[in-house]
Amino acid sequence: MNFDKIKSAWDNANTNDVNIPDTLEKLRRAQHPLDKLKRNMRNEWYMQLVSIIALCFAPQFLNIHPDLHALYYAMYGMLIIVSIYYLNLFRKFYQELIHYTAETKDSLNDIYYNFRLNIARYHAFSFLLLPYVLMVVGLIICSRWIEQGTDMVTIAAYLKPTGIIVTLVVSALFITAVPIWTKIFYGKYLTQIKSVLDELKEKFD
Amino acid sequence: MEPKERAFLTQIEAHKGILHKVGRIYVDDIEDRKDLHQEIIIQLWKSYDKFQGQSAFSSWMYRVAVNTAISYFKKEKRHGNTIAIDTVAEPESEPYDPKADEQLELFYRAVQHLSPVEKAIILYFMEGLSHREIGLQLGITEGNARVKLNRTKEKLQTITKKYNDEL
């Protein structure tokens, strides 16, 4: 193959296959994985916000005993503080994220490490929700006990280890499921980006 | 339409050869290529405010286009690696040289077997960039760019030789 000969054909290439629109409104939505991620995160941000507001009424929906409401709202307050912190971080990150103008290696490094960082943040946020969910389940159980006139001391002995085992199994499943979920959604893309970055590393052998 | 948008589209129109070349190098399917063209225009528009005019518009456009194409990873090779030579239109403004055109098509076929980084390197080489400039665009050293370019050219020679042997 003679590259010099090809170059003249290359320079004179027909560009009729490229259609530049009259206006940018005619373009479809961006399909880049990073843009899809940003859209997903924006949707999740709104969903989480609505969920957190809705959880304010959980004691009424879940019939939590009035004596336990103060405990519930103490937990709810902590949930709000943690959620505001994480949701704000996610929002700021995805608003600022534009990574196409830098040189290729820097651009891909930014995409790769920001993806990983946000997956880690997502994991941490999800794991922080686990104690809240378990405590709400605990409050629902306690409410039923109060209604039935029983408590931890008077329930059947076999129920205590069973409760502990169920709690541990549910926690383990949850902690396992969150990374699997993010790997399914973002794992392939991260692997592809990583392989390009590896290729860009110095190799003189 | 706002003046900024009009100015942007005028510049893109003037440099649409970049879209054509990046599209041909990175995607072999015509429909996927149209998608990639659109995606690059979107990303160029989103980054347009960051273009300060410190470098040539074409250099900036190449960088955004290549970065988008490298990290796009969508609908890879719907119909395998083959490109039908008879589907490519003849150039209108230049004297038609069937031999050169055939060579270019062979080149595009062979390029489909390269990795995303190798595609970027050969693209910049074909545009006449020096080793240093290729390194600057990709964020690698001049030496690394030289080594990678030589390897990529050797790889292309091997692939095209295989194609020629098959014919």
UniProtKB/TrEMBL annotation, chain A:
<keyword id="KW-1133">Transmembrane helix</keyword>
<feature type="transmembrane region" description="Helical">
    <location>
        <begin position="45"/>
        <end position="64"/>
    </location>
</feature>
<feature type="transmembrane region" description="Helical">
    <location>
        <begin position="70"/>
        <end position="90"/>
    </location>
</feature>
<feature type="transmembrane region" description="Helical">
    <location>
        <begin position="158"/>
        <end position="181"/>
    </location>
</feature>
<feature type="transmembrane region" description="Helical">
    <location>
        <begin position="124"/>
        <end position="146"/>
    </location>
</feature>
<keyword id="KW-0472">Membrane</keyword>
<protein>
    <submittedName>
        <fullName>Uncharacterized protein</fullName>
    </submittedName>
</protein>
<keyword id="KW-0812">Transmembrane</keyword>
UniProtKB/TrEMBL annotation, chain B:
<dbReference type="Pfam" id="PF04542">
    <property type="entry name" value="Sigma70_r2"/>
</dbReference>
<dbReference type="InterPro" id="IPR007627">
    <property type="entry name" value="RNA_pol_sigma70_r2"/>
</dbReference>
<dbReference type="InterPro" id="IPR036388">
    <property type="entry name" value="WH-like_DNA-bd_sf"/>
</dbReference>
<protein>
    <submittedName>
        <fullName>RNA polymerase subunit sigma-70</fullName>
    </submittedName>
</protein>
<dbReference type="InterPro" id="IPR014284">
    <property type="entry name" value="RNA_pol_sigma-70_dom"/>
</dbReference>
<dbReference type="GO" id="GO:0003677">
    <property type="term" value="F:DNA binding"/>
</dbReference>
<keyword id="KW-0805">Transcription regulation</keyword>
<dbReference type="GO" id="GO:0016987">
    <property type="term" value="F:sigma factor activity"/>
</dbReference>
<dbReference type="InterPro" id="IPR039425">
    <property type="entry name" value="RNA_pol_sigma-70-like"/>
</dbReference>
<keyword id="KW-0731">Sigma factor</keyword>
<feature type="domain" description="RNA polymerase sigma-70 region 2">
    <location>
        <begin position="12"/>
        <end position="78"/>
    </location>
</feature>
<dbReference type="Pfam" id="PF08281">
    <property type="entry name" value="Sigma70_r4_2"/>
</dbReference>
<dbReference type="InterPro" id="IPR013324">
    <property type="entry name" value="RNA_pol_sigma_r3/r4-like"/>
</dbReference>
<dbReference type="InterPro" id="IPR013249">
    <property type="entry name" value="RNA_pol_sigma70_r4_t2"/>
</dbReference>
<keyword id="KW-0804">Transcription</keyword>
<feature type="domain" description="RNA polymerase sigma factor 70 region 4 type 2">
    <location>
        <begin position="105"/>
        <end position="156"/>
    </location>
</feature>
<dbReference type="GO" id="GO:0006352">
    <property type="term" value="P:DNA-templated transcription initiation"/>
</dbReference>
<comment type="similarity">
    <text>Belongs to the sigma-70 factor family. ECF subfamily.</text>
</comment>
<dbReference type="InterPro" id="IPR013325">
    <property type="entry name" value="RNA_pol_sigma_r2"/>
</dbReference>
